Amino acid sequence: MKFLKFVSIIFIPLTFAINLDCIFDYQRSDFLGEIYFCNVTNNFTITAPETFITSVNGTHLPTLDNSYVQEFYSKNHIVNFMPYGLTKFFPNLAEISILNAEMKEIHQKDFQQYPNLVGFNLTNNNITRIEKDLFKFNPDMSFFAIWHNPIKEIHPKVFDQFYDVFDRPFWFEINYDNCTGDDKYIHESEIQKNILKCKPQHYFELSDDKKIDLEEIDENIEKYKKKINKINLDIAELKNEIFVLVIFIPLTFAINLDCIFDYQRSDFLGEIYFCNVTNNFTITAPETFITSVNGTHLPTLDNSYVQEFYSKNHIVNFMPYGLTKFFPNLAEISF
């Protein structure tokens, strides 16, 4: 007589633990101003979904602790999937930046653990799909950057929740060379009619009016061009009739600047060399020219390496003129 043997198989999900070392410091956020952040310094790898962060180490600035941390910043670490458990250490996390990480995918459940999230930066990763209701549990989201990802599918409803909720724009930054996908996702022909426009290195502002008719906008632009041309013709005729020559001589003012030259992190360009203005200066008139820039550069560097001009707590009523004379490769300006 044969006996049947029953074997119970219990599936136990594998979990992975990750320990992080942080440098804690302040940095400037475009949306929250000066914020306290954790910059991960040790080499760590996340190659499986739902990998939990189990410890965070690092020396805080005086009187501060984990509860003050508002941004988690990781660059050049392999993070294929969103980390889990960060809010256990940083309960007030508002921004997450995971750059150059080979991240493969993001899902709604990944963001559910961050209810206070305001900004999310995934520049230089391998994300291909933006799914529906991605930010359903993040009502305060204001900024989402996915520069340099091979995006193929963007669900047309992904941003719907923001149209009536925000009294400010929702910034969405993306660049991609091709727009393809099935019927559930926006592709090139649909993008031309809807919110997004399929152009590399394009910057989008999603405002309260989600029904944008691009053809109507183009028609209005042509109408305004015709009006401007007519105004120019009227001005030319008026000059011929009056025979009065009026010469406007703009007043110019000279400003001398002292800079501390150093490197800092830019959300868009990575590590950049910048000029931090230290002397007290004031600009109270239009077309005020910067006539000299002084300061000691880091070894082997000069003005041509400067990519950001940074001025804080100075009276600058009007944009300064002449900066490119000193910094020909300027890419960012911060006042």
What report would you give on this structure?
With 335 residues, this protein is an alpha/beta fold. The chain folds into two domains: 17-206, Leucine-rich repeat, LRR (right-handed beta-alpha superhelix); 254-334, no CATH class. Helices cover 15% and strands 30% of the residues. The protein contains six helices and 20 strands. The chain has helices at 86-89, 108-112, 160-163, 188-191, 214-242, 323-326, and strands at residues 17-29, 33-40, 45-46, 52-57, 69-75, 78-79, 95-99, 119-121, 129-130, 143-146, 153-154, 170-174, 202-206, 254-266, 270-277, 282-283, 289-294, 308-310, 315-316, 332-334. It has a nine-stranded mixed sheet with strand order 4-1-2-5-7-8-10-12-13, with no helix packed on it. β7 (95-99), α2 and β8 (119-121) form a beta-alpha-beta unit. The radius of gyration is 26 Å and the shape is globular. The termini are far apart. Mean pLDDT is 76; it is low at 164-169, 175-214 and 242-252.
| Fraction of residues in helix | 10-25%
Largest sheet entry = 9 strands, mixed
Rg, Cα atoms, Å: 26 Å
Strand content: 25-35%
The CATH topology of the largest domain comes to: Leucine-rich repeat, LRR (right-handed beta-alpha superhelix)
Overall 3D form = globular
By helix and strand content, what is the structural category?
Answer: alpha/beta
SS element count, helices: 6
- Number of DSSP-assigned strands: 20
Distance N terminus to C terminus?
88 Å
The CATH C-level name of the largest domain is: Alpha Beta
What CATH architecture of the largest domain would you give? Alpha-Beta Horseshoe
Unreliable spans: 164-169, 175-214, 242-252
Signal peptide: 1-17
Protein name: Leucine rich repeat protein
Organism: Polypedilum vanderplanki
InterPro entries: LRR_dom_sf (IPR032675)
